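User: Run a structure prediction on this.
Assistant: Running it now.
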Amino acid sequence: MTIIASLLSQANLPDSPTQRLDAELLLAAALGKPRSFLHTWPERVVSTEVADRYSAFLERRRSGEPVAYILGHQGFWSLDLEVAPDTLIPRPDTELLVETALALLPASTAEVLDLGTGTGAIALALACERRGWTVTGVDRVSAAVQLAERNRARIKLDNARFVESHWFSALGEQRFALIVSNPPYIAARDPHLAEGDVRFEPVSALVAGADGLDDIRIIIQDSPRHLLPGGWLLLEHGFDQAAAVRELLTRQGFKVVESRRDLGGHERISLGQWPC
């Protein structure tokens, strides 16, 4: 006979800041209950079926597989999103991109573009907060576009759409008041690629050339053809890439170029305004 408290104490996951949280999330999923259930009923006896399901989840986590992929969903902003190995797992740091975008434009009508949308996290967060905006998310991976569309349909947002496109390739002459992107920005030889959750995430969504800036260069070079006069470009990047991204934006002709810091104090995003 196994109780909830005993299962949690015997999880034996690798040491990490999220070790206890991971165990609780996986057990709650095995039970089909919210996490609060674990603390309300710690002495509740669980079935063999639940215990076996939890054990299988733990084994996957011990191998390094991210909890989000095991559960099939991840929270971002105010949304609960379906995730899959075809896309990056949405991360709290990227919410700074959403916050900054919302502050730049009024809540009235606007056309907004999210490049490399993945799960649709950024596009859907913006569409949810600004119902007057029309938000287009693009990704070159067909499975990612389909996933983002499933998230959109489940959240029931009619002011967002998703298109298969390698950056701007399928957008014709469309222009936008705001372009946002969390593109690949890790250098090809970065040792962090062999550590933690990123080992399970798609390399094409992580790596961008020798210095990690190849895709950012393309976006900065091509975005003026798709920005309205006075439009903004916002880019997430690595914690040590802000100066290089600001230089690229300035060299391309963007004005009001600056970077913003995340909660950890790192310059996490950079932005610029295309001249009127």
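The longest strand covers residues 227-236.
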